[in-house]
């Protein structure tokens, strides 16, 4: 069952009617094909009308939908022979960051992903995708591995932000994020980052200092959450919709600003309605992005310099 969003209520009513008709057909053996097709067509039209006119705040809600594809879903679908690698070799293992080596369409790559979890138990285990310093230091270890063996890096962003707790600060959260960002900028292999849902603050950009940044159509990427921004500017989280508008956090906005390179279309009604279809579209976009980075035939130092220049141009 999909978790309903407030603005989807008209669609949910139509879905309920379609389900009632199907149950009636199973019980009474009635032929309701024509009625069902009409309702499904209405439902599709409603989805298109709603999802082509989403406000930034509504896109935030879609980006946070619990049924959206997560990093583990993407890894399972797109990567073969994935071997997870755990620990930062300094403190411990962080379950909010998944990392390892796998094969993407026939070639070996290093994979780094932020994982929120899919149910209550796994969300608690993954700390809702909010990484501790050891998570970012694990990501750095994997980036060094990629450089050593000349493997492309593919990262998946999905976090409300790095964990802000006292213990994370005690273990050097700010330094870990900054060092991870720096390590990404220094990579001498192709680096492709994809924003799956939320890209929140430095916790997101730490694993997204890439040659190409891809965003799902209804994902968001921002320096702060709308609620956090509203609490600072308006002293009330009730102004989160206004903050979402002001932050320019949607994929379309960020592509116009040069922060995101590619916007990956989602199925009508959002990726949470057809996760595998959405992941396949992302896989095609990732393959194209990787080929585009490699097409120029730049050596490691030249690739690193071009990535640096790309980020320095932002906001210029």
Shape: globular
- Number of beta-strand segments: 8
Identify low-pLDDT runs.
none
For CATH, the homologous superfamily of the largest domain is named as 2-enoyl-CoA Hydratase, Chain A, domain 1
What does this structure look like?
With 316 residues, the chain is an alpha/beta fold. It has 14 helices and 8 strands. The chain has helices spanning 9-28, 33-51, 56-63, 71-78, 120-125, 133-149, 166-170, 173-186, 201-205, 226-233, 240-247, 251-256, 275-295, 300-313; strands at 79-84, 97-104, 107-114, 153-159, 191-200, 212-216, 220-222, 262-264. Strands 1, 2, 3, 4, 5, 6, 7 and 8 form an 8-stranded mixed sheet that branches. Helix 4 crosses helix 13 and helix 6 packs parallel to helix 8. The termini are far apart.
Features:
alpha/beta; single chain; 2-enoyl-CoA Hydratase, Chain A, domain 1; 316 residues; 16% strand
Write the layout of secondary structure elements.
Elements: H1 9-28, H2 33-51, H3 56-63, H4 71-78, E1 79-84, E2 97-104, E3 107-114, H5 120-125, H6 133-149, E4 153-159, H7 166-170, H8 173-186, E5 191-200, H9 201-205, E6 212-216, E7 220-222, H10 226-233, H11 240-247, H12 251-256, E8 262-264, H13 275-295, H14 300-313
Helix pairs in contact: 1-2, 3-11, 4-13, 6-8, 10-11
Give the gist of this structure.
Helices cover 50% and strands 16% of the residues. The chain is an alpha/beta fold and 316 residues long. It has 2 domains: 6-53; 59-313, 2-enoyl-CoA Hydratase, Chain A, domain 1.
